């Protein structure tokens, strides 16, 4: 097999990874299956980031996916298709393809019932399906492919195994996803065990950075009171400091997925029904909304709103959503658009979308490059052949790429294997990109800060961390971490220091 040095060092990490993959394809050109695997990794570099949504049964995975997309495309019932790993990709037109474990892919009809996508496996057992791939024209899917997975810790061990195998293959092959959104209703031992099992093997361990935890169904906390989201955010804040979670995920946020989805798909008919409820006597409505059973009683609130209609409202809003919506309407919300905005804003969805943009969107090239290098590393370790040159090139990329070093250190800080004095930890994580990789975010400056102010702040941070690196009280690992942060500050400073004026 032919190997050779990569041509001049590319200006970007993606370019470097692309070059080493092309060299690998050439190296393994006489082994078609291996070459195809590597070509697949090349293609992935130009595709949207792959983000899996995982969690226990009834954690609200499909509902959250629908909220993120803004349409009801993921089935939320307990049908056969919810037991299958399902990919949702951006496409020019709706299309569903079933990929069996053996045999050719089979197109499925695109059917919508009650404004929701209805996927029928046409009699094929879930155990025989490798995946479903749904193409759907959606703005949110242009930069991120969302992958819905069966619930873990379910009564069906086969369902749990299907998800665990997909995200954490037991044969040491790399996972097909770049990042994970993990949903939990509260911190359960099964959640911590799963997050512990989902980690990268080999050289690019960054599990705390490419995983976000969601305190889902947050509206149900405290019996669904109107202030439930405040309580949920307080709990999420406590979870962020939990040692059991800090080293396993980037952060924890509270989201009411049903409220978010309903807000993004609110209909005029929903608003009219809620307005009718809001006009009911306050004491009677409050009494009816004490529980779902009371709300569904035939004599509850308004006889003109049938039990079937109330049942539909409950499935769309939940008790919390009905309480909140009727309160907002009484306070002066007069249009469906205004109510939809209030529901989405109070659901926590905007916070999650912002977080996904900062942690996954801004890092998408780095995360995809990491996935490609993991796949190439697996090929080098398991496929016979002359891999010396390729291994050296991979090592050169890893050791020479500061972004990977930042991920290592950020993950180590969150796991507690590298420590700083408490007053420095938050600043270190922020400078490393823990809250986002934009220079202003790293330097704790407002968005839109000009180059001059960025340069001054970077210079101050540089001097401070140079002093920390020379602190004789710090151990070797802490001092090395300080020097890495110094490199980060130098990079920001170099990018935002104006060039010298000619003639000076």
Structure in words:
- The chain is α/β, with parallel strands linked by helices.
- The chain is built from 21 helices and 11 strands.
- The protein has helices at 13-27, 32-44, 61-69, 157-167, 189-197, 228-240, 243-246, 257-264, 268-278, 282-288, 292-296, 307-330, 336-347, 349-361, 364-382, 388-400, 402-415, 422-431, 439-442, 451-469, 476-496, and strands at 49-55, 86-90, 95-100, 106-108, 111-113, 116-118, 129-136, 144-148, 179-184, 211-215, 252-254.
- Strand 3 and strand 4 form a beta hairpin.
- Helix 1 runs parallel beside helix 15, helix 2 (32-44) runs antiparallel to helix 15 and helix 20 runs antiparallel to helix 21.
- It is globular and about 75 Å long.
- The model is unreliable at 1-11 and 199-206 (pLDDT under 50).
Estimate the strand proportion: 5-15%
Label the structural class. alpha/beta
**Known CATH architecture of the largest domain:** 3-Layer(aba) Sandwich
Straight-line N-to-C gap = 55 Å
Radius of gyration: 25 Å
CATH class of the largest domain: Alpha Beta
Low-confidence runs? 1-11, 199-206
The total of helices stands at 21
State mean pLDDT (0 to 100 scale): 85
Total E-strand runs: 11
Shape label: globular
């Amino acid at each position: 097999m032919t190997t050779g040095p990569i041509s001049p060092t590319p200006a970007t990490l993606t370019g470097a990874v692309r070059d080493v993959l092309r060299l690998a394809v050439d190296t393994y050109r006489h082994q078609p299956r291996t070459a195809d695997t590597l070509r697949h990794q090349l293609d992935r570099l130009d595709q949207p980031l792959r983000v899996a949504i995982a969690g226990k049964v009834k954690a609200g995975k499909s509902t959250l996916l629908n909220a993120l997309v803004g349409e009801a495309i993921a089935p939320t019932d307990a049908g056969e298709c919810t037991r299958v790993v399902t990919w949702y990709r951006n496409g020019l037109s709706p299309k569903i393809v079933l990929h069996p474990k053996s045999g050719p892919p089979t197109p499925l009809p695109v059917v919508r019932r009650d404004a929701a996508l209805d996927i029928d496996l046409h009699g094929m057992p879930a155990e025989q399906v490798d995946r479903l791939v749904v193409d759907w024209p959606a703005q949110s899917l242009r930069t991120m492919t969302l992958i819905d997975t069966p619930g873990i810790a379910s009564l069906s061990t086969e369902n749990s195994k299907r998800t665990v195998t997909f995200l954490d293959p037991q044969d040491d092959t790399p996972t097909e996803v770049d990042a994970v959104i993990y949903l939990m209703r509260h911190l359960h031992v099964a959640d911590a065990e799963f997050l512990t099992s989902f980690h990268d093997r080999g050289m690019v361990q960054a599990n705390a950075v490419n995983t976000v935890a969601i305190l889902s169904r947050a509206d149900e906390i405290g019996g669904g009171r109107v202030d439930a989201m405040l309580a949920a955010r307080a709990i999420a804040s406590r979870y962020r400091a939990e040692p059991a979670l800090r080293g396993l995920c980037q952060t924890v946020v509270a989201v009411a997925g049903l409220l978010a989805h309903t807000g993004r798909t609110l209909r005029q008919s929903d608003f009219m029904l809620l307005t009718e409820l809001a006009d009911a006597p306050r004491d009677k409505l409050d009494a009816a909304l004490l529980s779902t059973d009371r709300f569904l009683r035939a004599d509850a609130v308004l006889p003109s709103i049938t039990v079937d209609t109330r049942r539909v409202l409950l499935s769309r809003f939940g008790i919390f959503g009905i309480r909140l919506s009727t309160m907002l309407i009484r306070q002066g919300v007069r249009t469906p658009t205004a109510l939809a905005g209030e529901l989405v804003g109070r659901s926590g969805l905007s916070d999650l979308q912002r977080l996904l943009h900062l942690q996954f969107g801004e890092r998408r090239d780095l995360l995809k490059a990491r996935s490609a290098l993991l796949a190439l590393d697996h090929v080098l370790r398991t496929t016979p052949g002359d891999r010396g040159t390729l291994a050296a090139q991979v090592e050169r990329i890893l050791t020479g790429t500061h972004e990977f070093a930042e991920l290592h250190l950020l993950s180590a800080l969150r796991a507690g294997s590298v420590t700083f004095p408490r007053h420095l930890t938050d600043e270190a994580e922020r400078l490393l990109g823990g809250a986002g990789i934009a220079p202003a975010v790293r330097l704790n400056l407002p968005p839109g800060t000009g180059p001059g102010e960025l340069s001054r702040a970077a210079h101050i941070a540089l001097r401070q961390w140079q002093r920390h690196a020379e602190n004789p009280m710090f151990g070797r690992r802490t001092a090395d971490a300080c020097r890495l942060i110094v490199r980060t500050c130098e990079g920001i400073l170099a990018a935002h220091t104006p060039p010298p004026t000619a003639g000076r």
